[in-house]
Amino acid sequence: MPFSMKKSTQSKLGSQDVAQDLDILNKYKVTHILNVAYGVDNAFPNEFTYKKMSILDLPETDIASFFPECFNFLEKVKLQNGVVLVHCNAGVSRAPAIATGFLMYDEMNFAKALSIVKNSRPAACPNPGFMEQLYKYQETIRRPEDMMHEKTD
Q1: Region for residue 102 given its phi and psi (left: phi exceeds 0; alpha: psi -120 to 50; beta: otherwise)
Q2: 47-51, long-range: CB within 8 Å, 24+ apart, which pairs?
Q3: CB atoms within 10 A of CB 64
Q4: CA-to-CA distance for 106 and 85, rounded, in angstroms?
């Protein structure tokens, strides 16, 4: 069953089981699917708009290199007022890592973004390599106002 990441973006997180259940997808009014699983085909190519990114769930996988293309797709869904399911095989590591990164890209710090993802999907647990990349990603997107708060705190 998918869980909302953030109501304003109409994003859902789930596993390949959810992505292959047309009744659930229709129940949650999903319009787009971001498939970041490796070896999982898009189940309903005629019913939904898909973006498929085959990402291995290994700590050494450079998941951050997939961020721009994934985030571009998620932004388009947002602009179209669509509902997107972000899924991988089990919905534990890759999809939550992409969701966390997108929330960070959407002006949220790492801790808050990860907390929202984990509250939305308690099974979420990006692998250690993905966690390290997300932490480093935070440094690349820091805004000047973030740094000013650190200096005054």
Answers
A1: alpha
A2: 47/22, 49/82
A3: 16
A4: 17
Residue 88 annotated to the active site: yes
d(CA 114, CA 132): 12
Of the listed 88, 95, 103, 114, which one is catalytic?
88
Domain boundaries 3-152, corresponding CATH code? 3.90.190.10
Distance CA 116, CA 6 (A): 8
- CB-based contact 6:86 (threshold 8 Å): no
Please indicate, yes or no, whether the overall pTM of this predicted structure exceeds 0.90: no
The length of the chain is: 153
Where along the chain do its domains lie?
3-152
The span from the CA of 4 to the CA of 86, in Å, is: 10
Please write the tens of the pLDDT for every residue from 101-143.
999 998 899 999 999 999 989 999 999 999 999 999 999 987 5
Pairwise CA distance, residues 39 & 88, whole Å? 10
What's the one-letter identity of residue 2? P
